[in-house]
Automatic annotation (TrEMBL):
<keyword id="KW-0648">Protein biosynthesis</keyword>
<dbReference type="InterPro" id="IPR036191">
    <property type="entry name" value="RRF_sf"/>
</dbReference>
<feature type="compositionally biased region" description="Basic and acidic residues">
    <location>
        <begin position="139"/>
        <end position="164"/>
    </location>
</feature>
<dbReference type="InterPro" id="IPR023584">
    <property type="entry name" value="Ribosome_recyc_fac_dom"/>
</dbReference>
<dbReference type="GO" id="GO:0043023">
    <property type="term" value="F:ribosomal large subunit binding"/>
</dbReference>
<dbReference type="GO" id="GO:0005829">
    <property type="term" value="C:cytosol"/>
</dbReference>
<feature type="domain" description="Ribosome recycling factor">
    <location>
        <begin position="22"/>
        <end position="185"/>
    </location>
</feature>
<keyword id="KW-0963">Cytoplasm</keyword>
<protein>
    <recommendedName>
        <fullName>Ribosome-recycling factor</fullName>
    </recommendedName>
</protein>
<dbReference type="Pfam" id="PF01765">
    <property type="entry name" value="RRF"/>
</dbReference>
<comment type="function">
    <text>Responsible for the release of ribosomes from messenger RNA at the termination of protein biosynthesis. May increase the efficiency of translation by recycling ribosomes from one round of translation to another.</text>
</comment>
<dbReference type="GO" id="GO:0002184">
    <property type="term" value="P:cytoplasmic translational termination"/>
</dbReference>
<feature type="region of interest" description="Disordered">
    <location>
        <begin position="139"/>
        <end position="170"/>
    </location>
</feature>
<comment type="similarity">
    <text>Belongs to the RRF family.</text>
</comment>
<dbReference type="InterPro" id="IPR002661">
    <property type="entry name" value="Ribosome_recyc_fac"/>
</dbReference>
Length: 187
């Protein structure tokens, strides 16, 4: 008889990872100040595959309201420009040879609402990740019940634990998101 498949510590770690990934994504949403983290979610299609921007260029902040992206390979300037424009960040690169200058615009009310909406999108991605972890946990419990002799009562007790963990993690996601939206909207 094989050991149990259900591992509560692993589920907790994976759910905490989803919250940390959300925090990292939200860190890139800046309220009017330049930050290299702003471009972290940008992926560029180069050499026939998707790559993070920081693997094809150097990102720096020479001024408080300007981001500079220095592309290493001149043939990748076009794809990097396209990726930044289509990332939904509201940035319009100015191409200067192999360097793209990204002036950070003042935040209008409309732009703040766009950023808050983007914030909600990141939160939904995190919630989907948590639900996937929950599903894996529930599937593991059913497997344990069938193959490893876990009683139905134990399975139900563990399922309640998984659900409680899921609810707590979702509440954390909502709290983190609400704080960032408040910061963005300036309320």
């Amino acid at each position: 008889m094989a050991g149990p498949v259900y591992d509560k510590a692993d589920l907790e770690r994976r759910m905490a990872g989803a919250v940390e990934a959300l925090r990292h994504d939200l860190q890139g949403l800046r309220t009017g100040r330049a930050s290299t983290a702003l471009l972290d979610p940008v992926n560029v299609t180069v050499y026939g595959s998707q790559m993070p921007l920081n693997q094809v260029a150097t990102v720096s902040v020479p001024e408080p309201r300007l981001i500079a992206v220095t592309v290493w390979d001149k043939s990748n300037v076009g794809p990097v420009d396209k990726a930044i424009r289509s990332a939904g960040l509201g940035l319009n690169p100015i191409v200067d040879g192999t360097t793209l200058r990204l002036p950070i615009p003042d935040l209008t009310e409309e732009r703040r609402k766009e950023l808050a909406k983007l914030c909600g999108g990141y939160a939904e991605k995190a919630k989907i990740a948590v639900r996937n972890v929950r599903r894996d946990g529930m599937d593991n419990l059913k497997t344990d019940e069938k193959k490893n002799g876990l009683s139905e009562d134990e399975r139900k007790r563990h399922e309640a634990e998984v659900q409680k963990l899921t609810d707590a993690t979702t509440a954390d996601i909502d709290t983190v998101t609400a704080a960032k939206e408040k910061e963005i909207l300036g309320k």
